[in-house]
Amino acid sequence: MEGATQLGWWGVLIAVIGGALRVSTPYLFVSLGETLTEKGGRINLGLEGILMMGAMSGYGIAVLTGNPWFGVLVAGCAGALLGLLHGLICNLPRVNDTAVGISLFIFGTGLAFFLGKPFIQPSAPRLPDIALGAWSALPQIRSALQVNVLFIIGVILVPVLSWSLKNTRWGMILRTVGDSSDAAKALGYHVNRVRTLGTMVGGFLAGIGGSFLSLYYPGTWNEGLSSGQGLMAVALVIFARWNPVYCFGVALLFGGATALGPALQTVGITSNYYLYGAAPYFLTLVLLIHSSSTKHSLAGAPSELSINR
Amino acid sequence: MTQDSLATVEVQKLTKYFGALNALENVTIRFDPGSFHALLGENGAGKSTLAKCIMGYYQADSGRISVDGQAHKITNPRQAHRLGLGMVYQHFTLVPNMTVAENLLLGEEHIPWIIDWKAQRKRLEEFMAAMPFRLDLNQKVTGLAAGEKQKLEILKQLFLGNWFLILDEPTSVLTPSEADEILGLMRQMADEKRITVVLITHKLREVKEFAGEITVLRNGAVTGYGRPGEIKRSELIQMMIGREKVPPAVCRVEGEVCESRLEIRDLTVNNDNGLTAVKDVDLNVCAGEIVGIAGVSGNGQTELVEALAGQRQAQAGRILVSGDRFRRTRAEIRAKHVCLLSEEPLNNSCVRSMTLAENLALRNYDEPKHTIGRWFVRRKSMNRHALDLIEHFSIKTQGPDAPIETLSGGNVQRTVLARELSEEVSLLIAHNPCFGLDLNAVAEIRNKITEARNSGAAVLLISADLDEILELSDRIVVMFEGQLVYETTCDSADVQTIGRYMASQG
Asked: Please, what are the domains in chain A?
């Protein structure tokens, strides 16, 4: 507290940046995954459920094996499985992906609570982090720049995905399927298969995002862990215009908004704490209203997306 | 693409059944290398079925397809591609959010795992340089005009190395000038013996102007063959529809003093992207006249009609009907007898999930004659009303309870026509009313429009088909980039001048 009062409002800014780096990781993974899913022409609204399953299974496996990375891998696989479930159900004729997503959301969270009961007590090993702030003498900067390895992996994923969508065969096929199923069929691609794979990869990334919640920050497993981050990530993808690079920026913004309440606490502003805690939800609303229109579909949106048709 | 790979393609005694329907019957046609061969016929004559048999989408029940004298069993489109056969579809199969370069590359059979865009771009540029028409490789497809999209479809086939191109109604979404340009270029390439072209169409004008040979199909059988110079227009029509006469056009009557029915004042309307699509439009339509708005589609016509129809908010300006401000409420529409034939009627003026009878009653189901106490709808009276209209407008359907979606395009258009024109008409707004319909339906619908005019209605006709405008209108205005840039009466109308203003080189 001593340092914080010295730094004043700079302290708040540093804390917000630090919080953004820490809190943004699940947003980043979930939104990157959802970007891939939506590029293929489907919306997966079940991400919240996948996030919770990822958090629970990652935590559980880390507790059982003692290795957090094994937990991350299993969390990803659990997410991919739920993604596969979503994809397969949506392949059936006359099935609406939005409805399937909502039921997956409820199913995933329910299953996670059910299977996760035994893991509320034991503590799991945490994921390692890297001290990027070692150069600084200020403890605030040092703690703010304590960056998790998963965050760095996420940051690397951003240009990789962005490049792959343009420069690889898979990227081309995924975008074709998401943009014009007629064209894709005429070219001989299996539209449903590609979309299912897209949803699976999206689920994998969302599952990893979930494992970050339970294995690093906040770093425990309980039922209130996600508090809607998976749902907000869907809004985030829309605001990021289905562009991985923008996803990164918007994830940081959301992370910063989430960190606002705790950051203000460090300078002694404790009143209205819950109001500041609502900042990310408020931001979601504002962004969605801002980017919506009654007249036109969103620029950059894959044409096959059900919100566009 | 190389000259020596051009070969003769022949279909011999091709027969194809769909259930009991004989879609193709003993069709034999020979396509010479470098020829421009038109397949002419009405909707449902079997043209597309023939093309799909050649391309391997359908398997013929009997008969054979041979390339360079050798018979081939073509079981899928990929196999057709290997033989150099390609088809440009009626509906675009382009990926809208991708660039021209990406779309061209997508067609290839083997896309590399990792795409070296530098090398590919060089290859694409070299290919483009050898083509008679070019497109910007970096342009996104969403930003292309309809004509450019059509060009891209053709370029895609040529890029794949296909030398035998089937064009399925390529000009149905194009303006006359775009159509002429593209068909002219294809003719030129055929004359240079670079490609063989098969043009599927029902437009006589195109056939007369561009084709080297014509084969006419009717009900799945070949009913005629000839060269454009040797065969008369009336003969072609007879071969196509089986009788010489198309229903005759209703004659026009002379108009008198103008009684203004529709007055548009300084109307400005934005498009979906918030850009100005219609700008300061001023227009008067009098009772007993047809005013035709000509123009290349996409110059604000859709936005204008939507503003008149109440589907889109105007930014500025006023619309007056019979002298009163028109706010497009149901009460006003009824009181002023305003009728509307939208383009794409199934989307714009029908409720897809409702039956034919319900769609026919959309204008008046809430009027006393169809309700009990204006609150409960009497289905019986609605059905009777529907049966009347079905007979009067000869709508082909299983019955009034058939879902509107099961009707063919022409019959959906007839349904809307029946609904809108069965009662008193004071103002009729028609937007591309004959788009995609066969000759008989076109003639009928045009007759109904002139009939409405002759009985005193004011008609505003917005059409991308210049021939239609010229045939029907008493007064013609040209719309370009949202503005009315030219006006003429029908006696002094000159196609060349109108065409120039449509391209705005007035």
From this structure: 2-291 (1.10.3470)
